[in-house]
Design brief:
- This protein has helices at 2-27, 33-45, 48-70, 75-108, 111-122, 124-165.
- By secondary structure, the chain is an all-alpha fold.
- It has one domain (31-174).
- Helix 5 (111-122) crosses helix 6.
Length: 178
């Protein structure tokens, strides 16, 4: 359990911010306004609000479950608090997400490719894909959670083993010695 807590904290406080900084630096690169305009049309067709709700739904359920255990008999109130906080969070971050996503699309795809993508997302199968995305994310997260935890544990064991072999120090909360 300490190991998982350590790994989660490592990702949250060290790996994720470094990755986010690198992505932000890439996101600040010049973007062709013509590409950005069509990319923004594509991104807005995704219904990011529903997708963000789909992602946060997993977190919300876990949060509610934990809070309900600590506050028996108050599930309605807790669920309302969590739902309100999620809705506020989604609303406050939606515009920035659209801008970031459109910027990334505009940087990666040419104008012609963006035009083709727009056509796909406006097609019936593209619309179905957009509508199914929150469910796909939620289901895949639930199905792959244990696999990802196992992969993290396997990687951690391999790192510890190699560091032991190389005579390097390993923090106690990673299963090693200081």
């Amino acid at each position: 359990m300490k190991l998982m807590a350590f790994l989660a904290l490592f990702v949250l406080f060290f790996a994720a911010p470094v990755h986010a900084d690198a992505v932000a630096a890439q996101g600040s690169a010049a973007v062709d306004p013509k590409n950005y305009a069509i990319a923004l049309q594509i991104v807005r067709s995704f219904d990011l609000k529903a997708q963000l709700h789909g992602v946060l739904d997993v977190v919300s359920k876990t949060m509610s479950m934990i809070l309900n255990k600590e506050n028996p008999g108050q599930s309605d109130k807790i669920n309302a608090i969590v739902a309100g906080a999620v809705e506020k969070s989604v609303s406050s971050h939606l515009g920035d997400m659209e801008k970031n996503d459109a910027t990334v699309y505009a940087q990666i795809f040419t104008y012609d490719e963006l035009t083709q993508l727009r056509g796909f997302y406006q097609s019936p199968v593209g619309q179905k894909f957009i509508k199914a995305t929150p469910q796909l994310i939620s289901r895949n997260a639930a199905l792959n959670r244990s696999i990802m935890l196992s992969a993290i544990q396997d990687a951690n064991r391999a790192v510890i083993e190699q560091m032991h072999q190389d005579g390097m120090k390993i923090p106690q909360n990673m299963g090693g010695r200081l």
